[in-house]
Amino acid sequence: MTELENELLALQAEVQTAVGAVKDEAGLEECRAKYLGRKGLLPAMMSKLGSVPKEDKPAVGKTVNAVKQQIQAYLDECASRIHQAAEEKAALDISLPARRHHIGHRHPISLVMDSAVTIFRRMGFTVADGPDLENVWDNFDALNAPQDHPSRTPEDTFYFDLDKRDWLDPETMILRTQTSDVQIRTMKAHKPPVRIVCPGRCYRRDTPDATHGMSFHQIEGLYVDENVSLADLKGTLAEFSRQMFGEKTKIRFRPHFFPFTEPSVECDASCIVCGGAGCRVCKGSGWIEIAGAGLVNPAVFANVGYDVDKVSGFAFGFGLERIAMIRYGINDLRLLYDNDVRFLHQF
Ligand code: PHE
What we know:
The protein is of the alpha+beta class. Helices cover 39% and strands 19% of the residues.
C-alpha cells in the first residue's frame, strides 16, 4: 500500500470520528468544508495523485474514489441525523399552542329523552328497561293484540328465525315494535303499585321518509295502583306537556283504539309554534299529536296475573323523534340519523 493510500484511509477514519461529534447544521458545514471543500483535506491529497508512480496509479485511484464516497456517506448520514433530531425537538416543543379539541354534542334524541325522564322522575316515576330483541308474547299477545292485527305480519315487523318458527308462535323473536312490552315485563316481575317510564328504541318495517324511519324511540309510561282514573292520566300528561313544551301548553284527548288500553285516547298538545292559532307546523289545526294513551285493559292485567277487580292503571307512549322535531323545529326525521355534524352542532 502506498503512503498516499495510508494517508487517505487515515483521513477517512478521522472524518468518521469528526462527524460523530457534530451537533448542528453549522458543525456539519464546517466538517464538509474542512474535508471536501475546495481547499479541503481530501482535494489536497487528491492533488498528490499526479506524483504517484505510473504502475500504482490504478490502485491508488480506486482507493481515492472509495474514500471520497465513504466520506460523502459519513457526511450524509450526519446530515440526516441532525435533521431528525431537529424534527423531534420541534415535535416536543412545549411552547407551541395546543391543538383545539372538538367537544361532541348530545344528540337531539338523547336531549329530549333526558328531559322527559327528568320530568317523569320528578313526578315519582322510576326508569325501567327492556331488551330490543323481544319475544312475540311480550310484544303482542300479552298486550292483547289479536292474532290478525296487521302490525303483526312480517311485512310490518322484523322477525327472527321464521325458517324455524311460525310468526304467531309466542316464543318467536322479533325486534320490538313498541316500548309497551316493558309494561308486561315490569308487571310480571313486580306486584302493584307500579309507576315506571321506559325510554327505548323500537323497530317497524316502514319505508323511511320525512316522518317515518325503520327504527325510532318511544318513552312508555305505566302507572298501576288502586283507583287510578283517566283524570290521573290527563293530569300527568298535562303536567308533562307544560314542563316539556312550555307553561302555556294545553292538551286534549281524542278517542282512539289500542288493544292494551280501554278506553284509549290520542293526546294532542296545543301547537308550541303558534300557541293554537294555526300554522304550518300544526297544519292549521292549532294542535299536535304527541302520544297514545289510555287506561290499562283488564285483559292485560289478567295476562300478567294482577287482580283485575282490585287494580287499575294508565299507560302512555310518546314518540321521541316527534317531540324532538316539535321542540327544535326539525322538519325531516332523516336529519336526526344522517349524523351530519353541521346539523348536530346546533343543539
Ligand atoms: N304502544 C303504542 C304505539 O306504539 C302507544 C301507546 C302506549 C298507546 C301506551 C297507549 C298506551 O302506538
